[in-house]
Each structure stands twice: as structure tokens, then as C-alpha cells.
Design brief:
- The protein has one domain.
- The chain is an alpha+beta fold.
- A hairpin with a 5-residue loop joins strand 5 and strand 6.
């Protein structure tokens, strides 16, 4: 009969031991999810970055192309063009966001319980490998700078018809209103 007495005595402790083992098992599972990435939600978001250096290159090329085109307008002669920008161009990069959340409910033998909630967020720019071993960010969208005004100086800038043709050409090229384009005679 000693075995039955021992089992009855041990039965109360056994339930406590099982509760502790279950608690540690749940904690290990949650810790594994956090370490090895289980339960994460990956999202792609955009990051906008301003391009200061490339704006100057863009502007110079734009002025040269415009100068070449406008000098072909009948009666314009030699042409010089200056374009001013209202804002900087921007590139929008893809981002990967990882979010994870876990909840744990702890309960003690006395009937007390408490909940633990854990949230983590991580965000990185998505990159691709180039052929030379370097990486570059994935560009979703590039926004060019907004043009605030155009000044055209032309040899034939004093002729009303040439002036009108140059203004209409600039409007068609850049989508700016006529009041943002000025034409002057070159000396």
C-alpha cells in the first residue's frame, strides 16, 4: 500500500510540474518564432529619397536638348535656354517591412495570471545584386523635378511670331503655362 500512498502524495506535485513544463514549452515555441522568423508579416513599402546630384545633370541635359530643338524653329536663330526648378526630383525605393507579434498567458498555481505581449518591427530597403557583385536599391518610381520657369534668349526673339512659336514649343515640351515662359532677344 505504500505505492498507492506515494502516488496520491505525488499527484499534487505532478500537476504543478506539468504546468511548469507546459509554460516553458510555450515560451520555447514563442522564442523560436521570434528568432527564426515565424509569424512575421512581410510588407513592401516605399521610401522616397531626394536626388540632388542627378537633378543638376538632368537639368543640364534638358537645357541642351531644348536649346537644340528651339534653335531649329524658323527665325529663332541662335538660342540659349535656362530652366529653373521648383522642387527636387525624387526616387521611390521599395522597402520590406517585417512585423511580428506574440502573446503569452502565464498562470500560477494560486490562480494568478498575467499576459505578456511582444511586438517587433523591422524595415529594410529592397536591393538587387548587380553583375559586378555590388547591390543597388529597387527603384519603384522616379519623379522628375517640377519646372517653375523657362527663359529663352533667341536672336529672333524680337519677332512676335517667333516669340509665340518658342513659347508654344516650351509649353508643349514641359506642360507649363505661358506665364512661366519668357522669350527675349539675344544681343
Amino acid at each position: 500500500m505504500k505505492i498507492n500512498d506515494m502516488l496520491k502524495e505525488r499527484k499534487g506535485k505532478l500537476i504543478g510540474d506539468i504546468a511548469i513544463a507546459v509554460f516553458f514549452g510555450v515560451m520555447l515555441i514563442l522564442a523560436g518564432d521570434m528568432v527564426f522568423g515565424g509569424g512575421e508579416n512581410a510588407e513592401t513599402e516605399n521610401e522616397t529619397v531626394k536626388n540632388n546630384v542627378s537633378d543638376n545633370d538632368y537639368l543640364s541635359k534638358l537645357e541642351e536638348k531644348t536649346k537644340g530643338l528651339l534653335s531649329q524653329v524658323d527665325g529663332a536663330g541662335n538660342v540659349d535656354v535656362m530652366i529653373t526648378l521648383n522642387s527636387e526630383g525624387e526616387s521611390v525605393y521599395a522597402r520590406e517591412n517585417k512585423k511580428s507579434a506574440s502573446q503569452t498567458e502565464e498562470s500560477a498555481q494560486q490562480g494568478d495570471s498575467r499576459g505578456i505581449e511582444s511586438k517587433t518591427e523591422e524595415s529594410t530597403v529592397v536591393t538587387v545584386n548587380n553583375g559586378d557583385g555590388s547591390t543597388s536599391p529597387v527603384v519603384i518610381k522616379e519623379m522628375t523635378a517640377e519646372i517653375s520657369g523657362i527663359v529663352i534668349v533667341a536672336e529672333g526673339g524680337d519677332n512676335v511670331l517667333v516669340k509665340d512659336s518658342l513659347i508654344r514649343a516650351a509649353q508643349a515640351l514641359f506642360g507649363v503655362p505661358a506665364n512661366k515662359v519668357e522669350v527675349f532677344k539675344m544681343r
